[in-house]
Input
Amino acid sequence: MTRVALRGIRAHLVRFLLSLLAVTLGVAFVAGTLSLRTMMGSTFSGIVASSMQADVYVRGSEPAASAAQAGSSAGDVREAIPADLARTLNTVDGVRHALPAVSGPIVLVGADGTAVVSSQAPTFGMALHPDDDTLDIVAGRSPVGAGEIALESATLESSGLTVGDETSVVLAGEVQAVSVVGEVSLGAPMAGATIVFLDVATSNAAYAPEGLVASVDVYGDTGVDEQILVERVGAALAAADAAGVETVTGTAMRTEATADINDMLGFVQTFMLVFAGISLFVGAFIISNTFAMSVQQRMREFALLRAVGASPGQVFASILIQAAVVGLVGSALGIAAGLGLVSLVRMAVAQIGMNLSGSIPLDPATVVISLLVGTLVSIAAAALPARRAALTPPVEAMREAGGARSRSLRLRSIVGSVLTVAGLAGLVAAWSRPDPDGPALLGLGAAGVVVGVLVLAPVIARYSLSAMAAVFVVAVKPLGRLARGNVIRNPRRTANTAGALMIGMALVGAASVLAASATVSTRAIVDDGWIADFSVQSAAGVVPTGVVADLRALDTVDSVDELRYGPAMLAPAAGGTVAERSIIVVALPPAALGHTLDFDAVEGTLAGFAAGQLAVQRSVADDRGWTVGDDVTFTTAAGEASAPIGAIVDTAVIGAPIIMPDDAFERIVPSSQIAIDSLLITSAASATPAEVRDDLTGAAAPYVVLSVLDKEEFAGQLAGQVDQILGILYAMLALSIIIAILGIVNTLALSVIERTREIGLMRAVGLGRMQLAGIITIESILTALFGTVLGMAVGVGIASLMPAVFTGIGLTELAIPWGQLASMLGVAALVGVLAALWPAIHAARLPVLQAVSAD
Amino acid sequence: MTAHTLTSNHPARSLTAPPASVIAYARGLVKTYGTGETEVRALDGIDVDFARGELTAIMGPSGSGKSSLMHCMAGLDTVTAGTVIVDDMNVGRMSQRQLTALRRTRLGFIFQSFNLIPTLTAAENITLPLDIARRPVDRAHFAAIVAAVGLEDRLHHRPSELSGGQQQRVACARALVARPAVVFADEPTGNLDSKSAGDLLRFLRGSVDDLGQTVVMVTHDARAAAYAHRVLFLADGRLVQELTDPTQASVLDVMRSMGDETETEHEHDGARR
Output
């Protein structure tokens, strides 16, 4: 039987080619995702290994509020510890040297006069200890004094600077002229991080003005065991009466850091695997269709096999063997394609300055998983058709013109309706009750509707295709009618074929509605609440403090309001873990209310804001059970501090959960953790907008990373972020559309083979080649349109409910981009035409006589 | 190339113009399949006339070339050598596009089985050639033909809801609806029981007698051939005999005599198609 199965593949190579391609694409995504993950993992492990070489780390004992501080490691941020501890530790037996880890944000100006930034990686400055032997000065020397810096090798390259150049940095909020005196290697690619080395005194002044650092790194003498060193360091700390510190071995620290990174990469991986899943799902459709049709065509062959003594099990197995071969070969090709994909990705990220480790890894796990996934999906997809082949009695298959007996759609109708209705109920519930369960209900409801509609698709196809075909029936006589007959004749197949496109288009539809709504919402938020004339923002995330005074000094500027943020820690009485108690708070000068920013209280009043009352976002208040008049208590370095809630607000102008006046903020947030998010500026009455802008731009220029935005630009910038995310999404979805095209090609090609006699007959009674091609093209377009319309209806429908559910996070308006949706229909029609090309040409070339007398 | 095919390539020299009563004819018609050692000569230089307004049957043992003759006459297959003229048009010299147009305007077809498009109703199947050609349907003519084949109450049924005999009658109606110059029927009763076959043949003969239609029918059934005005007998790609106003008995006689003559040749003949 195996031989029969293998010969079968060879004899019908073209038929299996599309299945093969489908598996290849799906597996390419799986393999690509996995090996990209491995590659990124090994790059970051390399960074961990080369940048965390100490034998023992001394750090704060309890995680503090997590700060979105540039330069912080991927792990949690703990209470800072005194840098002085290093001096104590240096005296411990077996310690070669103990170095306080001093690092923080910095802006480096490159050779072209702009800030050196790579889009995703951090920029930070750190102290270059003269006795730190983990760093290798490959050129020049260590920086001495505030006027000198050294650069990490990759940073030096991407900045375009060379050792000896003069440039400037923005450090501790001030612009400083510096010269590059050295190049430092960390011994591994740093994934695009921009690293500036400073002399110890300079970095201490900038990053540890109060003598507090994140950790002290202890390096042991050669031959001293980590574990022994930890004990000695611990003992020394206890002797020195150092409270709130803990010691960990270098190995433990590195493991922790690696685990953190893996968590983060895991999220990226999940996202990408979702797309791999979609493409495999779609691929399974194609495989299943291919086998279903090839089984139907080869009924007589199976009957013959049965007649000469093959058991149903053997027939079943022979089809599964074919599927397994298709799956294996497709997966193998897919792995190769996946590696190609990864090298493309690597080239792309190298373009934006992110170096990933040299070799593309192909670990056994990736190979095994990819092969298994591809093969199992193929076998599973072929199982149903194989069962049908095995169960058909030989006599029936031997009969003339077997043809597909269409199975009842009743079970499908029932199951699909139940799922769809349940999903709709979930959606309505989510829509009517925008409480914390809303998003979960929405997700479940959406899943129910999507799966339900997929199951119902053949039923829907039967009725809706006639309506959709009406245009063609009237416009292109008699081709439209013939095409309509063909797509309706087997609604199950048409629906399955369109299924791939449906899923892709549902995602595209939902994404474009979300994007349009987000853009409109953003604009509405800015229009409503953003009444400043200009805003100054930083590409580095934090606005240098020095620029504030510079701007206030301008004649054309009336006022400059600082919008600051920082981490705060709720008192333990609030309950929950440390992570649950940490919260980001934003500070506003009370004068800014109604002057540069405008939002209203939904409960209580903002009148007490200036007097130290807090404004809390409604979603947060609901979450934590706070009401107007409650006191919120925070843990601070100086003990507990509390403030009353004056107002519950519901605004998206400020994204933070708690908004407080400046003085309360300064009591609650440690000064080292305060950062300026942006500056809000009003113009002097006498100045024209152009003058103000010129002045602002001029004053901000030395800080390099600052940009001046008016209201329009501010809204545009926010919308631009949405577009960027969408761009990635669209690129991924393009893949599902490509696979969808393959699916349609596949179905059309096989249905042309099935209908050979019919085609021959029509040609014999005078159907021209172009007319025949026209029929097939119309069928293809109808199938594509059906999938697109159904998918977009589902996607747009679900997305339309989102503003109601996600008002709290700033999605306030619903906008449906009709133009964009219409162009998607255009794309669908184009997809239809493209997909029809090959099958139509194939059909038109069939010799009439052979076609008429074909089996 | 033999001298024979040379002359066939220049039909004007060998042609004697047929009388006006002939609607289709072939001169020196040769059809070969394959090349070299596997070459098979299906038609070996045939001269034949088909009279206007007659039902002509083509008979012969399997492999005699009767289907090839019909396919070449109808422009369904290419001609190796010789001339085929149908309704004053040189079928052998036509492009695919011209042949397609010829088939839908001037010719009608009835095949042995699978004659109808399963997705179209009987009425839609009947008017299919006109629809394809985007020509208006002559309602009176349509009604007359439908009445003649007795399908008035089955017009809106799909092929799967019709019996085999009804399906063949729909095919006949389709072949006739465009008033073609010639209807070619390839074993039209091959899959029918004798009652349905009789009905169909009576109708075909009626279309000739009453409507002046020309029909060329390939068959191996002596009973079917007996409905024809004239029967042509083929063997080994040649025209070997001809009967006018045949009866079932006279057809059988000829077949029997042919069987005797060609018995020895049948052995290699059977392997042919």
